[in-house]
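Let us work through a complete example step by step.
Step 1: write down the sequence.
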Amino acid sequence: MGGDRETPAARAQRWSARLAIAAAVTAVALLVLVAGLRGIGLVAIALAGTAVTAAALWWALTRRGLVRACAVALAVAVPVAVIWLTIASRLLWLVALCLALGVLAAGAGWSALAAAGEHKAQPAYGTPRPVRPFLIMNPRSGDGKVERFGLKEKAESAGAKVALLDPDRRTDVAALAREAVAEGADLLGVAGGDGTQALVAGVAAEHGIPFLVVPAGTRNHFALDLGLDRDDPPASLEALTDGVELRVDLGFVGDRVFVNNASFGAYAEVVQSDAYRADKLRTTLDLFPDVLTQRVGPRLTVRVSDVTIDAPQAVLVSNNPYRMGDPAALGRRDRLDTGALGMLSITVGSAAQAATLLRGDRSSGLTALTAREVVVDADAPEIPVGLDGEALTLPTPVRCTIKPGALRVRVPRHRPGVPRARPRLDWRKLTVLAVAR
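Step 2: predict the structure and record it as tokens.
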């Protein structure tokens, strides 16, 4: 009966599930049988310590002076105390062994569940090579990546016309891009940060021509989610000679384009400060006590379909949803063509509620939704908005929408790609996989 034979991939998946379950059961059994009540007590202390540390960090962010200093001291002292208690109980070896077994269980479980799930990569399309590409480069972005990597010279050698922005004066990059299109450019590109990328991407989408992303900024989240290599900006220029196209969505706040996200609330308030660019950490710590406790700033109301969220401290509306449930890949988007906005909001009224944020998307203080439209209103005529990191002030209500497949993005044929998301560990599903053929 050859048709009933188990494939090697299915066999490996089943044994990965079995290994995950065996490692998890062994870890629990060792803790209970070797340490008894002491082991259970250590687990309880560790969980309580984690919650107290999270609460202390909330106090550190929302208080000033002596209270903040005490909160920071508590956030440091609690983990140290937990480690000391573990050593004093002479169970450090057991805890280390159980943690190692836990890591093994998680790794094997993720491997089994990833093999069971479907992964559909974003489709790429072959298109003719651009004849008159036009690139805008910001020499200040990424601490001078344009000059450091010789991007201007490499782009010109690939046949592109390059406009190097003058760092001493402000340039309307959208107008510059429109002028290039009027002169016959059949591709627009940017070597710079995400804010500049968004402005020129809007022009490319408006004229239906492809857009090239060169990750020459500081963070380059858009490039990351396109599967580009952020550590090798020149590699993106290969798309000029050997590239394919992706069709991706664009987010809009009113008529303004964003490629990553629009933020409202605490972060948007902080980036409005003139001091933020010079000293981000100090400015954030100075302003957070007032904005997180909502002593200053407008009171927000968010409407997503039939859901209303009242008075969140922070709201993030993204062009396609961010990953949830995978702490190692927070801030990543699996695809940019789902046709939906992601919406994350945080509402925290106390240190105890802040501690519940450790539960991730299961926390009552965190709301994660997807929709085609998100409306952010407030008890003020206008509110600060962080649009792909750029500080704006917009009249309320602010309407966020998405335009599916609005942008043609040209990328190198050979690129790292977007790594698969780790699935949530589902022990019931793992059990089924372990026993099924």
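Step 3: interpret the result. Residues 160 and 400 are 34 Å apart (CA to CA).
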